[in-house]
Model the fold of this input.
Amino acid sequence: MTSAEIESARSDVERSRVQVTETLAELEERVTAPVAAVRERLDVGALVQGHPWTSLAVAMSAGALVAATGADERVAVAAARAAHDASHATLDAARSAPSKTMGAVSAAADAIAVKLALAFIRSITAAEPGAPPPVRRQPVAGSQPGT
Done:
């Protein structure tokens, strides 16, 4: 590649960068303005401050509508039932915690005992490198084990 070709490629890259930057700025401007407008219109705090009496009337109407449908009573009953069920579940969990803890402690103690027993057996049966195999006693003829 000649230096003229390299320079041409560099200028093409620079033009592309400028184009991309301008396009991104334009897209950002197109998106940002509508989003800001929607945020302004949906700003509940500003609406309430700007129209306090209208906001109060809307809130009271919504409350009356909910009360007329009985939805508030159904929600209150469901919330009370859920709280009651949750309290019983908590009580059951608290009652079963000691037995679960004892079970876990017992299982851990069993595991430790097994590991200690295996280590003891291995230490008894392990031979030193180069030592002859352990001599095993042969039962005496005519004797029975356990007598």
Summary: Residues 107 and 113 are 10 Å apart (CA to CA).
